[in-house]
Amino acid sequence: MNKIKFSMIVFICCFVLGACAVNNADIEEDTIKADLKETSDAENNDAEETGFPVSVNVDGKEVTIQEKPQRILPLSLDGAEIVLDLVETNRVVAVSKSVADPMISTQAEKAELIDERLASATNIDPEQILSYDVDLLLLTKMHGQEADADQLLQQAGVPILSFDTVKTVDDLFTNIAVIGKAVGEKEKADALISSMKVEMEQIQSEFPAQAEKPTILVLSEVGPGTGPYMLGPTNISYDLIKKAGGEPAVNLIGLDRTTKAEVEQVIKMDPDFLFLLDWQGNGEDAYKELMDAPGWNTLKAVQNGHVTITEVKYIMNPNKEIVHGLKLMAETINEALE
């Protein structure tokens, strides 16, 4: 074989080997791209199936939740009541003791299925909370302690939804919608809101025509043994009174927040209707000092037999059973007007 033929053979071999190498590289690159695409498609399919990640806006702050929460911890009664309407109890790692109290909670039966209990929302221990390895925290900032705990928990990197106090029915609907989206149960939340709205509209449609709105005063303890308070515009009961066709009696004295009840102020308002909220099943006993005070028996509501005692969960606490509270108020007014 001469040198020219040998050189040609070497050249052809090198060309073929080089082409094979390029083809192999192309195949490997195509394989990697296919694998990446398959992974991306799988992730997209998972996201489509679960709806996560999701972002929710609470009080002007956007919170992103990467995966559907399976270890939810509602630190406040109102948050727990909403969550337990939307998810199975095995997705809730703990609840406050108040959630198991049937006088103030609409979820007492479900709370019995949850073993772990927290102290009251006014005594939050961030270390205890983080020990539950939660993937979503819910907090209502009603007291200074909750606000302090909120700042500490924000630093832990756990998604936390911090709500302001619920003052109106619309506030409650907003919170139900936000929590529903956050826990991956948007359809259930929408259905709950829709059902409540339909019931409330039905109740309101049955109001008789009246020339003047009757005045209504709601008195309640704000905790066991605290003594009665006059509930003001900062409590959802104020909005319920208006939706029931009444006028909040506290407007007559310019009350702008919930305040300790004084018989002189109650006499000054002289409401047409009184609602006394029961915290512990004691009925009138919680109001004995106030009812024994001079002047109480001169009130229009007392003289006309328009004093109603009902459980606190129906009127004071924001939950789905405020529909029952609205119905109770409306029926009480309607019966008096017949």
Descriptive keywords:
338 residues; alpha/beta; Rossmann fold; six-stranded mixed β-sheet; 45% helix; disordered N terminus
Count of extended strands: 13
Number of domains: 2
Give the structural class: alpha/beta
Mean pLDDT: 85
For the sheet with most strands, the description reads:
6 strands, mixed
Span between termini:
123 Å
Tally the helices.
12
- Give the topology string: H per helix, E per strand: HEEEHEHEHEHEHHEEHEEHEHHEH
Task: Tell me what the CATH architecture of the largest domain is.
Answer: 3-Layer(aba) Sandwich
Polypeptide structure, described:
The chain has 338 residues and is of the alpha/beta class. The protein has 2 domains: 56-200, Nitrogenase molybdenum iron protein domain (Rossmann fold), CATH 3.40.50; 209-337, Rossmann fold. Helices cover 45% and strands 15% of the residues. It is built from 12 helices and 13 strands. The chain has helices spanning 3-50, 77-86, 108-111, 126-130, 144-154, 169-182, 186-205, 236-243, 263-269, 288-291, 300-303, 322-337; strands spanning 54-58, 61-65, 72-74, 95-96, 117-118, 136-141, 160-164, 215-220, 229-230, 247-248, 259-260, 273-278, 307-311. The strands form 4 sheets. Strands 8, 9, 10, 11, 12 and 13 form a 6-stranded mixed beta sheet that branches. Strand 6, helix 5 and strand 7 form a beta-alpha-beta unit. Helix 6 (169-182) runs antiparallel to helix 7 (186-205). The longest helix has 48 residues, at 3-50. It is globular, with a radius of gyration of 31 Å.
